[in-house]
Amino acid sequence: MDSDLIGLHEIAMAAGVTPSAVVNWRKRFVDFPSPVVELKSGPVFRAVQIYAWLEKRQRKELGSATRLYDQLAAKRNDDASLISKIEEAAHKLADENTSVRSPGMLLGKIQSGKTRAFLGIIARCFDLGYELAVVLTKGTTSLARQTLMRIKKDFADFIQTDEVQVYDVMSLPNLTPYELNQKLILVVKKEDDNMSRLIESVEVKYPVLKNKRLLIVDDEADFTSVSYKKKDGVVGVGKIYGQIDYLRNLVEKSDFLQVTATPYALYLQPEEGIVEAGVQLFKPLRPKFTVVLPVHDSYVGGDYYFEKSTEPDSPAYYFYREVPLEEREALKKEDRRRIKIENVLTEKRVAVLRDAVLTFMVGGTVRRLQSMSNKERPQKYSFLFHTEQARSSHDWQEEIATAIRDGLVSEAAEDSPLFNEIMLRAFSDLKRSIQLADSLTPSFEDVKGEVVRALVEGQMMITKVNSDKDVEELLDEDGQLKLRTPFNIFIGGQILDRGITIRNLIVFYYGRSPKRFQQDTVLQHSRMYGARSMADLAVTRFYAPQHVYQVMRKIHAFDVALREAFESGAHDRGVYFIQKDARGVVVPCSPNKLMFSEVTSVRPGRRMLPVGFQTVSKTAGAKRLASLDARVRELVGDGNIGPVLVGVQDAAELLGLAYENLEFERAEEDPRKAHAAALEHLSRTCKDSEMVGKVWLLVSRDRDVARYREEGRFSNAPDTKQQTELALAKAEHVPVLMLLRQNGDEKRGWRNLPFWWPVIVPPKTAVTSIFASDVPSRS
User: Which domain of life is it from (predicted)?
Assistant: First the structure.
């Protein structure tokens, strides 16, 4: 080709973009140079015209760059890593054709600064020629208001200089031509009436908006927004997305950005199954592009609360406290057979809540004393009490919490033995994690003195939050729940767990047990995610029933599995969603069908094992144990053997026999179906054809692991470090099944029945998989 002629690839290289971006420029910019000729290989342009156009475009962008986003970034002190991601997302939106079905995706973590990021993206998109931005929020008035206040705060300077207008679509005033000539941001709840008002405003009331370039930002994209429905066998989008499609067709140019902390949203669009290694698998559809937000140094998330909590030398080890089911039931409604409120300081069925309240006082007091020691202003602290949705339950819980507070006030004033007992228990609990965090530990006497003073002076406030109206009255100027006293307890239901920000949350009493757990729902309940200091973490406690905590651990593992698959590039191979059908055959499962209390994440190199079980009785299990002993001996002999290569059917038989002598308190805690499916799936989808259908078997006998660890937690390490390392080294292409024969002595918490504890190690080359042991019956 002549040196003064260039094609799409050369233009892309010169501009530092993809060829598809250049194709989009041709469609979007009327001043883009016309080609000299259209060849089969693509259009050919005069280089001098292209370079002049690129220089003009760059000057235009640089000129506008000194305006909105640069000013906003300077005002907010955005760091270089965030600025880079904002620039990347904004330019990809400008250059790529995004849509409802193929959106741009902004992936962050819960409470990691996603709002800050997408507001920066809106500002930069305004600099790039966009004139209208629609921010879609979840369907609560309080969250919409919080979002509106946050946008107005960030864009305050531009609102003051008449460059930007910001409104809730339901409160949109009569706009003048002067105002319509400014940049416009509309906050819209993902509800029919809000969307209808938005469409009416664009289509009828202000048709001039049709000529403006539109950016739609779907905040907290999840099931609410990615809503697919099947009718007559045809899959189509739900009503909200249908309305978004209608809006996009009204305007000349538009782009679509989804913002989420739950990467499950990356996998929600339906797609037909594919076949790999002879096995039919479900692979998800990817967005047009995905920008992964950086995590700031002070961010704390599930890795701390659900992974570090297993390490005895971490403050997180003391983070979780179990709420007995009897206590959760007693807190649903008044029943004097369960709780006599006049005896609330001694009633057994409210013991954990009682300890939680005073632990909150002690923890907050420790932090305030530490701040004063550092010559810093003492902060106010919060406690979130969320176990039920029913308002009648909240009334009863408010009554209980108030009785506990008033009882503590009386006992503290008298310096009674009961008060000192509860006080010492709370202080001793927190002292261990405070010391592990290397924080200043005030003396018991100093802490007690401040706690007594706080109680007597009425520094603890209990607030019931039941409605949008309640929340609206409690929000401060930053759109966060106002902390009016040093110690604030908030009691409420779903209204509190949908994005409302609560400062300095150090105690969370969570007992809600819905029939279905959804990833976004449960993780959003974890209001302790976000920027947290180690000093705060040392006094943070989470109270919940054991099964709820275990489900949250599962969902965290699921979240990490999908995120790792994406960030490592394994996302290009997909993530397998599988289940067993009625015949016991592993088959693909649509990700739309998952119930998160019934999922198991299979991650390369990550051990899979049962935890929290008990053995069956010695009488019931002796015969099955003898059969399994004989079968193991037949396959590998006596002693500690392995790894030995066996067929997957033999391995599955051993696994099944091992599980027959284990029982679980709740059905959803039993992973046998998932583990059996995973073992078969991992073996049969092996990339090495000679190893397909094989499993490495490692056997160890005479193990003596106790059922419980310190603090009453269940043991989760039946294997030694050496065994784990050996299994990981061997799990290259096919899984390893470790069978560890425990003595099962009663003095170690078992039932005097030896048993085999199974551990599966997925191979390093495996593709991340999600197994659903149950799915909803409705299509």
Answer: Bacteria
Q: Strand, coil or helix: what is 326?
A: helix
- Identify the pLDDT of residue 400: 93
Lowest mean pLDDT among 67-71, 93-97, 468-472, 497-501: 497-501
Query: Which of 207, 239, 261 marks a domain boundary?
Result: 261
29-88 pLDDT tens trace: 778 899 998 888 889 999 889 988 887 776 655 444 447 898 898 889 888 889 999 999
Q: Which residue, 365, 358, 380, 371, is CA-closest to 425?
A: 358
**Residues whose CB falls within 8 Å of the CB of residue 592, separated by 6 or more in sequence, listed in order:** 228, 268, 270
Q: Is pLDDT of 286 > 90?
A: no
Q: At residue 86, what is the residue type?
A: I
Same domain? 543 vs 578: no
Give φ, ψ of 280 to 5 degrees.
Answer: -75, 130
- Rounded mean pLDDT of 687-712? 88
Whether the pLDDT of residue 513 is over 70: the answer is: no
Indicate which CATH number applies to the domain containing 112: 3.40.50.300
Backbone angles phi, psi at 50, to 5 degrees: -65, -45
Quote the percentage of the chain above a pLDDT of 70.
Answer: 82
Q: Distance between CA 571 and CA 44 in Å, rounded?
A: 35
Selected residue with higher pLDDT from 520 and 165: 165
Residue 562, in any domain of the structure: no
Element (H, E) at 292: strand 289-292
pLDDT for 706-754, tens place per residue?
A: 998 766 678 888 998 899 999 999 999 999 999 999 999 999 999 999 9
Cα torsion 542, 775, 580, 630: sign: positive
* Residue 95 and residue 168 in one domain: yes
Task: Output phi, psi for 115, to 5 deg.
Answer: -65, -45
- Into how many domains does the chain fold? 4
Q: How far is residue 275's CA from residue 380's CA, in Å, rounded to a whole number?
A: 57
pLDDT in tens, 216-241: 999 876 544 444 344 444 333 457 77
**Cβ partners under 8 Å of residue 767, min gap 6:** 565, 570, 573, 574, 575, 576, 604, 685
Of 168, 92, 153, nearest in space to 119 by CA: 153
Say if residue 97 is in the same domain as residue 155.
Answer: yes
- Give yes or no: residues 36 and 178 share one domain: no
User: In 99-119, which positions are buried (b, 16+ CB within 10 angstroms) versus exposed (e)?
Assistant: bbebbbbbbbbbbbbbbbbbb
- Which value, in Å, is the radius of gyration of the alpha carbons in the chain? 29
- What letter represents residue 61's amino acid? E
**Residue 67 falls inside a structural domain:** no
Assess whether 220 and 313 both reside in one domain. no
Distance separating alpha carbons of residues 320 and 546, to the nearest angstrom: 9
Q: What is the DSSP string of 364-397?
A: HHHHHHHHHHTT-PPPPEEEEEE--S-HHHHHHH
Give helix then strand counts, H and E, for the chain: 25, 32
Clarify whether residues 404 and 453 are in a common domain: yes
DSSP bridge pairs for 42: 39
Beta bridge partners of 586: 580
Provide the token pair at 128.
């790039």
Residue 294 domain-assigned (yes or no):
no
Domain closes at, from 261, 279, 308: 261
The two tokens of residue 538 are 């040392």
- In sequence order, the 6+-apart residues with CB closer than 8 A to the CB of 734 are 682, 683, 686, 688, 691, 694, 695, 696, 763
706 with 749, same domain? yes
Domain with 30 in it = 5-62
Q: Which residues pair with 168 in a beta bridge?
A: 187
Amino acid at residue number 714: F
For residue 9, the domain's CATH number is 1.10.1660.10
Q: Is residue 18 part of a domain?
A: yes
Closest CA to 386 of 542, 193, 248: 542
CA 773 to chain centre: 21
Residue showing tokens 């292409």: 733
Q: Are 222 and 110 within one domain?
A: yes
